From TrEMBL:
It comes from the Bacteria. GO terms for cellular component: cytosol. Residues 10-319 form the Enoyl reductase (ER) domain. This is Alcohol dehydrogenase zinc-binding domain protein. It comes from Caulobacter segnis (strain ATCC 21756 / DSM 7131 / JCM 7823 / NBRC 15250 / LMG 17158 / TK0059). PANTHER family: QUINONE OXIDOREDUCTASE PIG3-RELATED, QUINONE OXIDOREDUCTASE-RELATED. The lineage of its organism: Bacteria, Pseudomonadati, Pseudomonadota, Alphaproteobacteria, Caulobacterales. Keywords: NADP, Oxidoreductase. GO terms for molecular function: mRNA 3'-UTR AU-rich region binding; NADPH binding; quinone reductase (NADPH) activity; zinc ion binding. Gene3D superfamilies: Medium-chain alcohol dehydrogenases, catalytic domain, NAD(P)-binding Rossmann-like Domain. Pfam families: ADH_N, ADH_zinc_N.
Length: 321
């Protein structure tokens, strides 16, 4: 079968399309034949070495498809079930073996493509708005990269929870997307000062929470945009890692900072299922819609990474086997 692997870290050029033998499920595992593979920014961190892997390695953490075989002792799924998973390395392939207790069943109302596009990003949004910081009616939130995969879901979910959303984007085209998703205010950080604009929009109070997947480039502005006792949620490094900082910098407004990981919020199968159920419920209600902005053949994963890092993608991106 076709798979994408890396034998060294670096830029998109290190991605190699290779032919490997299709795996067989061991006890407790299922073999999933992929219909679609999700592309996520964390994949670029693994490829670059920011998040180290043992090499050589497959790449990719998220896919959806059909169960083709089950290992001994598996009762959670059977052959033919429609499933999705995230968190198991090696999704950039035509098929993969996955621990049965780390996959979730896809409801009939959700297509395999949408499931592959939304599971990791959607579960990330779920824990960010429901558990990392509990967004509630009347909160004002700041969401960076609002036209990106996670950003689009965050905007819609926060609006569904009754929050006022200030979104940041990098172009007028992306500003239109954020507005169409329901953002109350949109800041184009290429032309506007984030801190000044947030101050203007909040009467100088600041926001209750910042959701920041950009990292280095927005860190300082994010902290300055928070209200007293505000929560800084730095969950990604699209522009590079956040620089070291002194805790004393948080003292002026008694701020909180967290650097959460999805996998610490779906540690158990019960947490995984609860997160997936909440995600599929908000999709089913129509409160959150998923935009698959672009697709690439699996063999062209390099081009997909180049587009993602070049900020030329909008919404979710899929690799199609």
């Amino acid at each position: 079968m076709l798979a994408i692997q890396i034998s060294r870290t670096g830029g998109p050029e290190v991605l190699e399309a290779v032919q490997v033998e299709a795996p067989s499920p061991a006890a407790g595992q299922i073999l999933v034949r992929h219909a679609a593979v999700g592309l996520n920014y964390i994949d670029t961190y693994h490829r670059s070495g920011l998040y180290p892997l043992k090499l050589p390695s497959g790449l990719g953490l998220e896919a959806a498809g059909t169960v083709e075989a089950v290992g001994d002792g598996v009762t959670r799924f059977q052959v033919g079930d429609r499933v999705a998973y995230n968190g198991t390395m090696g999704a950039y392939a035509e098929a993969a073996v996955v621990p049965a207790d780390r996959a979730v069943r896809i409801p009939d109302s959700v297509s395999l493509e949408i499931a592959a596009a939304v599971l990791l990003k959607g579960m990330t949004a779920e824990f960010l708005v429901r558990r990392c910081f509990h967004v509630k009616q009347g909160d004002t939130v700041l969401i960076h990269a609002a036209a990106g995969g996670v950003g689009q879901i965050l905007v819609q979910w926060c609006k569904a929870l009754g929050a006022s959303v200030i979104a940041t984007v990098g172009s007028e085209a992306k500003a239109t997307i954020a507005r169409d998703l329901g953002a109350d205010h949109v800041i184009d950080y290429g032309h506007e000062d984030i801190v000044a604009k947030v101050g203007e929009l909040t009467g100088g109070q600041g926001v209750a929470v910042v959701y920041d997947g950009v990292g280095k480039d927005t860190w300082a502005a994010s902290l300055k945009s928070l209200a007293r006792r505000g929560v800084m949620v730095t969950f990604g490094n699209a522009s590079g890692p956040v620089p070291p900082f002194a805790p004393l910098e948080l003292g002026g407004k008694s701020l909180f900072v967290t650097r959460p990981r999805l996998f610490d919020y779906i540690t158990t199968t019960e947490e995984l299922d609860e997160s997936a159920e909440a995600l599929f419920a908000v999709l089913g209600s129509g409160a959150v819609k998923i935009d698959i902005g672009q697709t690439f053949p699996l063999a062209e994963a390099r081009a997909a990474h180049e587009a993602l890092e070049g900020r030329r993608t909008i919404g979710a991106t899929l690799l199609l086997p």
